């Protein structure tokens, strides 16, 4: 009788463990189905505001980067690479969809590009690369 009860207890425990392992965890399911959208606040920049930045800059790493405007959109391009749309997030700051950040100072005479490696380029650079330029 002891072995029968012990066998039933073990079978019940194994059955419970199998059921618990197979049942999805409601917390994990909800967490996996949720998504987070992170976006920087946009800044409405008038075309005449962009004129201070519409130029070419010789960066500290020897590359040349230029800024242009076309039909109300703003772009940057590293010489020889595809151009990339940039988005104003402040009166002197822009970002790309991939996370490169451009910041102008001194009425557009000074440029700092953070996360430069996130711009399209042939060379692979380390994360958080920053380059600077002065007109």
Automatic annotation (TrEMBL):
Keywords: Signal
Signal peptide: 1-22
Descriptive protein name: Gel scht
